[in-house]
Design goal:
37% of the residues lie in helices and 12% in strands. It starts with a helix and ends with a helix. It is α/β, with parallel strands linked by helices. It has a domain at 41-97 and 174-343: Phosphatidylinositol (PI) phosphodiesterase (TIM Barrel, Alpha-Beta Barrel). The strands form 2 sheets. Strands 1, 2, 3, 4, 5, 6, 7, 10 and 11 form a 9-stranded mixed beta sheet that branches. Helix 4 packs parallel to helix 5 and helix 10 crosses helix 11 (332-343). Strand 2 and strand 3 (90-92) form a beta hairpin.
Length: 344
């Protein structure tokens, strides 16, 4: 075979490859959530997403923290962490023990009764030292301080008209049901902290709660589930594929890694995970996730891109400029000021 003929065949193969790439690179992207409330409005500001209620301004995962954020932005999205107690109540808690945030010790969530938390008036306004297993072995109790060193009480919240503090001094345990019913218009991101069998029991309890409240509170239209556990993402997917086609959820990291790898050659056409939003840091493992290309690729799938946990003003400004759909922050007051400054 002549050398010229070989090069012609190579050129033909390259043309075919280029044509196939162009087809898939610019083809319409599959969309999991048609009307995605976790996307920002076109040319509008990103959503303020109160991380655990805004836990540098009030104790995290307390009803009072969410009322504080509500006073700053009534349209804010509320992010929370949940686990299941021994008596089957879905409570707001980041940890799987109550040792760090309360004035009790040796208290795994799964072995503690919500009924006892309320009856004993356990306070959730602490920031105690814990060991690797999450236990406060020192027996020391440190009162919560805000980012600027203030001590706050439930009376320091600017409540809406008609809402009274639950207690004058302590921050009581808060349930997912309370968060749903006290804020009937706000969208929620609910992260399941437990995995395995406990996680499946927790998921069952959440779905049951969402079903019970859906007629009055539109729970399936307002709640986005999330988890760092792969088995929980698999469970979300199964529920969406079988019983709840409108279930909204965020995947854990390997689904996002797959999307990131596909977006580099513009081949996210092949990404078929039916997710509502990505919860990502600005940078992970040396990879820059705060780029126009990444955000635009996700948004072509109508997937919302939310960045966590952003407490630095310069980072906030960068993400507002980038067109992020939402910014998770411990400082909703600061983020609101940045957004107002940008859009005024």
């Amino acid at each position: 075979m002549k050398l010229g003929g070989i090069w012609k065949k190579i050129l033909l193969v390259l043309i075919v490859i280029l044509f196939v790439w162009v087809v898939f690179a610019f083809a319409p992207r599959p969309v999991a959530t048609e009307d995605n409330p976790f996307r920002r409005e076109e040319d509008g500001p990103p959503h303020i997403i109160a991380h655990a209620g805004g836990n540098m301004e009030f104790p995290d995962n307390t009803l009072e923290a969410y009322y504080n954020t509500y006073s700053i932005d009534p349209d804010a999205i509320f992010e929370t962490d949940v686990a299941l107690t021994e008596d089957g109540v879905v409570v707001l808690t980041h940890d799987l023990t109550f040792d760090r945030k309360t004035n009790i010790t040796e208290a795994p969530v799964e072995e503690t009764r919500y009924e006892d938390l309320m009856e004993d008036e356990v306070g959730f306004g602490y920031e105690n030292p814990i060991d690797d297993e999450g236990f406060n072995t020192t027996g020391e109790f440190h009162e919560y301080e805000t980012y600027d060193g203030r001590h706050v009480t439930p009376l320091d919240v600017d409540y809406p008209d008609g809402v009274e503090p639950r207690h004058e001094e302590i921050f009581r345990a808060t349930t997912l049901k309370e968060l749903i019913t006290h804020f009937p218009e706000n969208y929620l991101i609910v992260e399941l902290k437990q995995g395995g069998e406990q996680g499946l029991e927790l998921l069952d309890a959440i779905i049951e709660l969402m079903e019970d409240l859906d007629d009055e509170y539109d729970t399936f239209e307002r709640i986005n589930l999330a988890s760092f556990h792969r088995d929980m993402t698999d469970a979300f997917t199964e529920l969406r594929d079988t019983e709840y086609p409108d279930l909204m959820f965020s995947p854990q990291h390997d689904s996002i890694e797959k999307f990131y790898a596909l977006h580099l050659p513009r081949l996210t056409f092949f990404y078929r995970d039916e997710v509502t939003s990505f919860q990502v840091p600005m940078e992970e493992g040396g990879f820059d996730l705060a780029t126009d290309a990444f955000v635009n690729a996700a948004q072509r799938h109508n997937i919302a891109v939310h960045y966590w946990t952003i407490n630095d003003e310069d980072d906030m400004r960068e993400l507002v400029e980038l067109g992020a759909d939402g910014i998770l922050t411990d400082r909703p007051t600061l983020l609101n000021e940045v957004i107002e400054d940008y859009y005024d």
